[in-house]
Amino acid sequence: MKPLYLSPQHCALYGWENRDVDLLTCVSCKATLDGMIGTEWDTDTYNSTCTKLRSSIINGHSKFCPWKETPCPESFLSLPVRTSQEWKASFEDVCRNLLSLEGNLPVLKREAFQELVSESE
């Protein structure tokens, strides 16, 4: 089992997404990392390998990749603590704000939407 600082959520803070078991790909520069960690090693080797992988998650991007210097804040790992009434009020505020635009939203062509969807798959 991998330590928490190597979880998919922590990897995502640095722009990595899981492409396969133990395979990470940067969403921007498309660099890849092999995240496999053997479980049969002694504790020192295991800890050393985890530390190296953590360093690779932070520094494994291409030279000009924006994730290298600007990861997401750790606060992104948790949702704000709110009551169901607070979530509902927040959602209603967003809806009111959208309605106040009175249809002045940008038009999204079907082709552009399909392109966005296919890129994310």
Automatic annotation (TrEMBL):
Q: Where in the cell is it found?
A: Nucleus
Q: Which InterPro entries match?
A: NuBaID_N (IPR012935)
Q: Which Pfam families match?
A: zf-C3HC (PF07967)
- Name the keywords, alphabetized: Nucleus
Molecular function as annotated in GO: zinc ion binding
Signal sequence span is none
Indicate whether Lipid biosynthesis appears among the record's keywords.
no
Q: What is its main location?
A: nucleus
Protein name in UniProt:
Nuclear-interacting partner of ALK-like
The protein's organism comes out as: Paramuricea clavata
Taxonomic path: Eukaryota, Metazoa, Cnidaria, Anthozoa, Octocorallia
**Nucleus as UniProt keyword:** yes
